Amino acid sequence: MRADSSATSHVTIAVPPVEGGLGQPAETGSRRGTLLALLGVVTFSLTFPSTVWGLESFGPWSLVALRSLLAAALSGGLLLAARARVPAREHWAGLAVVAGGVVVGFPLLTTLALRTSTTSHAAVVVGLLPLTTAVFSSLRTGTRPPRAFWAAAVAGAAVVIAFTVAQSGGALSAGDLYLFGALLVCAAGYTEGGRLAKVMPGWQVTGWALILTLPLTLAGAAVALAYEPVRLTVHGVVGLVWVSAVSTFLGLYVWYRGMAEIGVARASQLQLAQPLLTLFWSFFLLGEEVAAAAPVAAVAVLVCIALTQRAGRTRS
C-alpha cells in the first residue's frame, strides 16, 4: 500500500519571550534590580561630600590611592573566602575598562575637581552621567531603547543640568575639564561593568577590577603619602572609609547587580536623582546653600525617571 502523501506536516514556531526595550525579561528581577540600583545611587550620592571630608586629612592623590587599596583589601578577602574563579581571558579587557573608568579615573578626576569646585557644582557630572551611560550602552551592547525612553532621558538630564548650573550662577570652574573627563570614563566603566555582571556576580566584577589596579594603587599610595601631608581628623577618616567601603565596594556591587537585572540604560536613568540627593547631603553635612527651586527640580526629575522606567519595558 502507498503511504498517504497528504499527511499534514507540523511546523513548530519558537516565540521569544516578551522583553523590555533594554534586553531584559519584562518581569524577572525587575523590582529587585531597581531596588539594588537605587541603593547604589544612594551610596553614590554621598561620595562627593565624603570626598570633601577626606580631603581634610589627605591629599587628592593619597585619598584616591588609599580608597582603592582599602576597597581592594575588602574585595580580595571576599574573593578568597568565596574561592571565586579567575575570570576567563575574554573578560579581562572589560575589567580593565571598569578599573580604568570607575576604580581609578572617576575617583581621581572628581577628587582633583573638588579641590576648586563645590559639591553642588560637581553634581553636573552626575546630571549628565545617566544620559551618557545610556548612549555608551546602546553603542556597546546594541540595545535600542524606544524613543520615549530617550525623550525622557534627555528631559531629565536637561532638568538636572539647568538646576545645577543655575545654582552655581552659571559660572564654569577650573575643575570643569576634570569633571567632563570623569563623566566619559565613568560611563564607559558603568557600561562594561553592567555587561560583565550578566556573566559573573556583580561583586566579582568590582573585586577583580580592584585587584587589577592593585599594583598601580600600591605604588601610587607609596609615592603620594611621601609627598602629600597627612592630617588625620574625624571627618577625614570617615570620608576615606565611606568612599572605600561603601561607594567603591558596596555601592558598585549593588549597582552592577541592579544593572544586570534591569539593563544598563534603565538603571543609569535612576542616577538622575543622584545630584539632588548630593545637594541634600551637601546642605546637611557641609553647610552648602541649596536653592529654593530644589523641590521643583526633584519632582520633575522623579517624573522623568518614572517615564524612563516605563518606556524601558516596551520592546524597541
Word description of this protein:
The protein is mainly alpha-helical. The protein is 71% helix and 0% strand. The chain has 13 helices and no strands. α3 (60-82) packs across α8. The longest helix is centred in the C-terminal third of the chain and has 29 residues, at 234-262. The protein starts with 29 loop residues before the first helix and ends in a 5-residue tail after the last helix. The model is unreliable at 1-26 (pLDDT under 50).
Question: Which key features would you list for this structure?
Answer:
316 residues; mainly alpha; single chain; disordered N terminus
Helicity level: over 70%
Radius of gyration: 22 Å
Largest sheet, strands/sense/barrel: none
- Structural class from helices and strands? mainly alpha
* Shape, per Cα inertia axes: globular
Mean pLDDT: 80
How many β-strands, per DSSP?
Answer: 0
User: Could you give the distance between the termini?
Assistant: 54 Å
Strand content: under 5%
